[in-house]
# Entry
Amino acid sequence: MKDWKQDLRKYSADTGGGAVKKCIDCGQPLKDSKFIRCYSCNQKSRSPETAPQSFRLPEGYLEGGYFDEKGNLRERYIAKDGDADIIAKQLGFARPAMTNHQLRRFYGHVRAAANRLDMTENFPAVYVDLKKLDPFVSEAKGKGKIPDLFYDFVIKNIKAVRPDHKEDFTKGFLEHFQAVVAFFTFHYPKK
# Structure
């Protein structure tokens, strides 16, 4: 007589009987058919060895400002595989973890300053609002809420905005920060 337990193992409630979905890496049966990897293989694929090792701003970052000699925004600050994309990827692995909420909170402050500039055309007042990001980001870093990389990103960009050049803010920092937020959301939609 056959062992009924062995026969029962062949069938799964998720698959309708017979075929059990297996891990694409090791071939182990999966507990839940909605996944493609088992827990241990998924952890290996997310290990620190696969993460970028240096969590710092790209080489030559903001040297020479946001604009080229013709006054156009340098492509490296908004392009795929450019500085914005590199920074966004690194923020996803940096610790403490950067979340979409934290990133959008700071971007919201910058966006609000831009809206105020649109309404008032008073850049000196808006420049002061922008400078307020310095203590906000410092507090978040001190409380361990944001990674060092993001702190460095904000501080370096605030310093790059010159008080008498509103284009540094509106066409430089704002566009660059928007690209970082967009790439972060692209790479880490559920963070």
Q: What stands out?
A: Helices lie at 4-9, 39-45, 83-93, 100-120, 123-131, 133-142, 148-160, 166-187.
